[in-house]
Amino acid sequence: MDIFKIKRFKLRGVLFGLILVFSCSISKAQLVQNFGVYDTTYNASKMRFIGITTGTAYTGSMILLSQLWYTKRVPFHFFNDNRQWNQMDKIGHSITAFHEGNTSIELLKWSGVKKKGWMIVAGMSGFALQLPIEILDGYSPDYGASNGDIIANFTGSALVTGEYLLWGQNYTTMKFSFSPSPLAKAQIRPNILGSTWNEQVLKDYNGQTYWLSTNLYPFLKQNSKFPKWITLDLGYGAENMLHGNPEENLANGYQSYRQYYIAPGIDFTRIPTNKRGLKILFFVMNIFHPPVPALEFSKHGIKGHALHF
After folding, report:
1. Backbone angles phi, psi at 5, to 5 degrees
2. Which of 26, 126, 239, 278 would disulfide-bridge 101, Cβ 3.0–4.6 Å?
3. pTM for the model
């Protein structure tokens, strides 16, 4: 399978997820403006509005994807891409499913839904939303369904759902940060890594870092003065990748390697504010990891970053 097609295949699922997350966030913004506050009892009007807006966004996205990407069909088949890109694409699937589920849970809480069963449905919505894409890929002659992608989607959804079932909120959040890699800046294989920043932020895995951000406050003594919005974050990235397949990458003179990070972070949703607009902004900002000092661990040793993007 052509590497560009593989890359395009991975890009499609992540992009679709981000579109849905932001469309849900916009719906949330409209609901805050129109209805004001979170309800303590079930609000049927809000639920109808949520169902119409998210349902329309999902249906329209699926129709668009079907028309743009799935014009030819073959018998259903799988494609094993689990060793490619040092699994960076798999974590991208997980973070997409995580935030789709988190947004769905917040929307239900906002409309006054408190039943645990509905929270499970909402939390696992990321997995449910991504699964049709994998099925459609299985019928595409250029792609193929990926077990790794399906597992990654499930993992992201299970993380956010499990936390809400255990604690009623999420103390850990998956986040994303990006800075164009030297390979992308040098315009080496721009069809793969992207020729502009807008393309590179989605296609240049070398410049991406994925984070598991954990809030420390619940683990401290009661009445602690430690800021509730400070987090401890663990990051993962990879470098020196021009080809998805590691053997092909090495044959072309590039030996990829993994990177692990530890850094402080910010849980924007826990910054105190009574401004509704800021609450919505902080909710969206919490998808992204801010530039902060970080320690990097790799096969090349330990490296400090004054600011890691």
Report:
1. -65, -40
2. 126
3. 0.86
